[in-house]
């Protein structure tokens, strides 16, 4: 892979759900050596530190059960601005932080893609579809709403307008295994590509991914990849507050990232939902760093071995 300018952006977002701990994620990735791992692959890596949200006040119209909507809206605005600006300088990696950070990161990269006249695509590696709106979510946790927001669903009162919504057919949800009835009914009315773990068991993980990557390439698209810790099986990545058994294996996850690397299509990346408070001696942070390295050129023959004892 040719050397890239990679910009690390810490997003210690912890407002998208009521279980605390994801604010420690960015520094856990740094401690696990993400900058060094990517620099060892020949990339030029810069770390711009952690973002912080501006002060804000709640907007009227938001359901009362929604957790910390004003704080999440402020994070969305900050991340949208940072993402759009950083895309001009290289490939940003957003170090999360819970998955509500993707409301801003995806919106920002989509705005940049619109300016450059390229279609924006999103690969969502997650156990959940995250297609709720603030009105439809029973939990009130906004980390379950990014796909709803970036496709232009209504109800995000107080959030920046989604000026460049992602076309439904430009989104691929891979690894699904926890989708509630309301989300399922809404998704069935869309053209969003969605692949659950049963399909992956039956077809393998490479087939649906290859089909999507071929579509992105044919459209000369910009590809944003959003990797949630819970895409992985909790036996290999326990540091997440939304564990769902039956996730991707380490080998399947590395294959996904290696295929993304081979495609040369990825233009931005989220690493989200790492809660170091729930980790086992940094095990999950290291797995996520290794997966990021696979997406950016590391291969089996030069992958280091880590002891987790």
Oligomer: single chain
How many structural domains can be distinguished in the coordinates? 1
Please outline the major beta sheet.
8 strands, parallel
List the secondary-structure elements in sequence, H or E: EHHEHEHEHEHEHHEHEH
**What topology, given as strand order, has the largest sheet?**
2-1-3-8-7-4-5-6
Rounded to an integer in angstroms, the radius of gyration calculated over CA atoms is 18 Å
Percent helix range: 25-40%
Unreliable stretches, pLDDT < 50, 5 or more residues? none
CATH topology: Arginase, Chain A
Q: Residue-averaged pLDDT, rounded?
A: 95
Explain what the structure shows.
The structure is a single chain. This protein has 309 residues and is an alpha/beta fold. It has a single domain (5-302), classed as Arginase, Chain A, CATH 3.40.800. It has ten helices and eight strands. The protein has an eight-stranded parallel β-sheet, sandwiched between helices. Helix 9 (250-263) runs parallel beside helix 10. It is globular.
Set out the fold topology.
Layout lengths: L4 E7 L13 H7 L2 H6 L4 E7 L18 H18 L4 E6 L4 H15 L4 E6 L20 H5 L20 E6 L4 H7 L5 E4 H7 L2 H13 L3 E7 L21 H14 L2 E7 L10 H13 L14
Parallel strand pairs: 1-2, 1-3, 3-8, 4-5, 4-7, 5-6, 7-8
